[in-house]
Specification:
895 residues, alpha+beta, TIM Barrel, Jelly Rolls, eight-stranded antiparallel β-sheet, 14 helices, 18% helix, disordered C terminus, binds beta-D-galactopyranose
Amino acid sequence: MAEATRTCWLQWRMLVPIIAFVLFSSTVSGNFFEPFNVSYDHRALIVAGKRRMLVSAGIHYPRATPEMWPDLIAKSKEGGADVVQTYVFWNGHEPVKGQYNFEGRYDLVKFVKLVGSSGLYLHLRIGPYVCAEWNFGGFPVWLRDIPGIEFRTDNKPFKEEMQLFVKKIVDLMREEKLFCWQGGPIIMLQIENEYGDIEKSFGQKGKDYVKWAASMALGLGAGVPWVMCRQTDAPENIIDACNGYYCDGFKPNSNKKPVLWTEDWDGWYARWGGRLPHRPAEDLAFAVARFYQRGGSFQNYYMYFGGTNFGRTSGGPFYITSYDYDAPLDEYGLRSEPKWGHLKDLHAAIKLCEPALVAADSPQYIKLGPRQEAHVYHGDSQTEGKICSAFLANIDERRAVSVKFNGQSYTLPPWSVSILPDCRNVAFSTAKVGAQTSVKTAELVTPPFGSLSIMQKTMNEDDVSNISKSWMALKEPIGIWNENNFTFQGLLEHLNVTKDSSDYLWHKTRILVSEEDISFWEENGANPAVSIDSMRDVLRIFVNGQHSGSVVGHWVKAVQPVRFVQGYNDLILLTQTVGLQNYGAFLEKDGAGFRGQAKITGFKNGDVDLSKLSWTYQVGLKGESEKIYAVENNANAEWSILEPDVSPSIFTWYKTYFVTPDGTDPVVLDFGSMGKGQAWVNGHHIGRYWNITSSKDGCEACDYRGAYDSDKCRTNCGNPTQTRYHVPRSWLNPSNNLLVLFEEIGGNPFKISVKTVTASLLCAQVSESHYPPLRKWSKPEFMNGTISIEGTAPEMHLHCEEGNVISSIEFASYGTPKGSCQNFSTGRCHSSNSLSIVSEACEGRNSCFVEVSNAAFGNDPCRGTVKTLAVMARCSPSWKTGYLGLRSTVSRSEQ
Ligand code: GAL
C-alpha cells in the first residue's frame, strides 16, 4: 500500500514540469480551463456536468484601469466569488460608427482573459443597452442620427445596428477562444437589459422585438446560455432573471429554468447634490442567504466594485463621477469593511452547503414560527453519503426568536438567516458581523505641488500646507470663439448639434431694445425675463458678456430675469449636459437643451419668440478643441500666472503640476474648494466635478432590520456629494504631473490638495461564543451529517490594505469591553495584558490574527462570563513606518 502510494507520488513528480508547461502554454493561448459546457435545469446552471451554486462579482471594466483589474479580480476571488459579471459598453467600443476601440480601459479581451487566468468564470452582459448609470445607457450618440431609427423596438435600422454590434462581440470572444467550450471563462451571456420595464410602451412591436432579440442572440452560435433580466415573457430558450434588492421567492417563467439573480443591488448610485446611499452588510447578507435558502442558484453583486465614471461616461440625469455604489470593494478597489469580510464569510458558509443544495431538487419547507421558517436540503453525495444543509430565517424585523429545529434550540436574531451546513451547527448568521470594520481617511500629502519652475519664487517657504502657490490660469471666451460656427434661424436641439462631443453648446443672438422698452421697464419697475418651457441640465445666460443667471434641472421650466441696455444686446445661452439619460423608453427622442417655447417676456410690444431669431451656434469650449489639457498641447496655450489673491472667476482654465505621493495607496484630488467643471491629469480625463451640497435631512440612524431601499441609511447629509476624485496611479509619473481644470462658476484652486486614501483605522470585536471561524472549514469533512471542525477557539483577523502595516494597536481589551469603533473602553472585566498580546501579534504586520481564548491571554479575567476581544488598530503605509522590511507581513493562513 505504502509502496503503491510512493510510486504514484514519483510518477506525479515527474508529471509536474509537463503539467506546468501545459498550463503555461494554455494560458498564453487563451485557454484557461479544460473546455467544458454549460447548460441548466430548473435547479441551477450545470457547469461541466455539475449543478453549481454560484456567487458573482459585478465589475465594469471601463470603470477601472487595466492596471487595477488583476487586483479587483483577485479580491473578488478572495471574497468568495466564482464568477465576474460585466456589461459591454457599446459607446466606448464604437465611438464613431464602424470605428472600434478595444484599447486601454476598453480592452475587453484582456479583461476577460484576466478573469479566466484567475480561475473565475465570466457572465458577459452584451446588452447592448445597459442602463448602468452610463452615458446614454451605453448607446453611441451617433445611433440617433440613423434615419428612421427607434431604439429598442421592432425597428429595422435599430435591429440592424444592434445585431452588428452584438455579433461583433460574440465573434470577438469566439475568435479569442473565450467561451467555456473553447476553454475560456465565459459561461453565460445577456441580451437586452430590463426590457420588461418599458416593453408596454411599444405595444405589439415591443413583444416582437423581444422575440427577435432572443432568436438573433441564439442564432449567433455562442454555445452558452443567454439571460434576459426582468423579462417575464423571455422566450423558452432564454433564462429570465431577477434584479432587485431582494430576489428570494422569484420564479422564472418556466419551471425548466433556474432561479438567477443578475443584479443584487448591494448599494446604490448617487446624484450631484444627493446624499450617499449605504446598504447595511447584515441586510445584504440576509437577502443573499434568503435567495439561496429559497431555491436561488446564481447571485451577482451589482456592483462588487463600482469604480469611477471617468471622462464624460456617467449617465443622467446628474450622476456623479464616483460610482462607488457602497460596493464591497470601494471606488478605489479597497475592501469596504465590514461588508467585504461579512460577505466573504457568508460565501464560505454557502459553499459548505453547496453539495446538499445541488443534490436536492427542491428544499423541504418547515414552518418554525409565525415569521420563522427553515428550508432544508437533503441529498446523497457520492463521497459523503447522506448530506443535509439548512437555512433558518427569522423575518421578524424587531425581535430575536428562539426556535426548535432538528431537536435543538436556536436563537435567531431579528431579520436574519442562520446557515447550518450540517443541519446542526450554525456556521454563519447574517446578523452577526464577525468581519473587521475599517475607517478610511484621506490623508493629505505634502508637498504635492510646486514643480512649475517659473513659479518657484512665489512659494511661501513657511507654508507647510499643501496649498500650491504655483497655478496658471487662462480665460475661456464666453460665446463664439472661432470661425468653426454656424448660423441658423431658430433653436436647434442640443444633441443634434453637439453629437455629445462636448457638454457645452453656445447659442448667440442679438436683441434690439428700444428707448420705449427701457422706459416701460423703468416705469413698471419690471425686468424682461428669458423664459423656456423646459430645459435640461444646466442653462447659463450671458447678456453683453456678463453672466446674468443660471438654471439647473431636468426638464424644468426656466425663468430668468435679464437686464438689457438700449440698442443691440448680445444674448448668449449656454446649454450644458451633465450625463445623458440612461433609463427609459424612447431614449432617441430624449435629447438635451430646450423643449417647448422659448421667449423673452416683458417687452412693451409683447414677448420675443426666441425660436424666430437667427442664432449663431458653437459646440464646446475653445480649450477643449485645442486640447489644452493634453501634455503635448498645454504649453501652446497662453497661460498666465495666477496670483493667490485674485477673486474666483468663472469660465477659467487652471493648471499646475504635482508630485505623486509615495507608496501604493490610491491617490485622490480634493476639489472641495472648486465650483463645477472637469479635470484632467496628464491628459487623462478624470471626470466632471461639482461642489454641490446635499440636503441636511434624511440621514437618520441606520437600522439594518427591515427591507432596504435607497433612501434608508444614507450618509453625508449637508455636505457636498463628492469632493474627492480618483486619479489611478497608472496615470501618474513620479513627479511633474500636469493637472488641468476647467472651472465654470469660480473656485479657489490654491486650496486643491492631493491626498491618499487608506483604511487607517481597523476595528474588530470577536466573542468567545462567536461561531467557529469559517476559514477552518475550507475543506469541510462531512461525517454522518455533521461537520468536523478542527479547533474551536474563534480568531480575530485584522488586515490592512496592501502596502500598509499595523503601526499601532490603539485599543485592545479581552474581557467585557464597551462601546464601538473609535469609542471602545474597557469594561468591568479586562485582561491587563490585552494590549501587549495583541501588539506583539500584530504590530509591523500587514495582517495578523489573535485567538480569542483564555489560553491566548494567559488567564481567565472573569470566570463564567463570555469574553469579547475588542481591538482598534492603526494602519500606516509601510514606507512611513520603521517596520519596513523588519517583520514578515504574512498571516498564518498564508504561511
Ligand atoms: C438596473 C439596471 C442597471 C443599473 C441599476 C441601478 O435597473 O439594469 O444597469 O442601472 O438598475 O444601478
